[in-house]
Design brief:
It is built from four helices and no strands. By secondary structure, it is an all-alpha fold. Helix 3 crosses helix 4. The longest helix is centred in the first third of the chain and has 16 residues.
């Protein structure tokens, strides 16, 4: 149990040092395995509210961690 807590503390420290917010590492991991995922997919798979995903992705885009692209099939006519 002590090892678990120490590893979690170290992961949290590194995440903070990198300037990431809670939830962003989970999104980055998901995108690593699911390139070109939609915000809806990210929300469902990472169990994060859609509005929270939107704000996290905007911040990640500003940090050049991700690049958002509009797909033609996502557009509402």
């Amino acid at each position: 149990m002590l090892g678990f807590h120490r590893s979690n503390r170290e992961i949290a420290r590194r995440i903070k040092w990198e300037g990431l917010m809670p939830g962003q590492p989970k999104i980055l991991e998901y995108l690593w395995f699911h390139d070109s995922a939609s915000q809806k997919d990210i929300s469902l798979e990472c169990i994060i509210d859609k509005s929270t995903v939107t704000s996290l992705l905007k911040r990640m885009e500003k940090l050049d961690l991700i690049r958002k692209e509009t797909r033609s099939e996502d557009r509402i006519l």
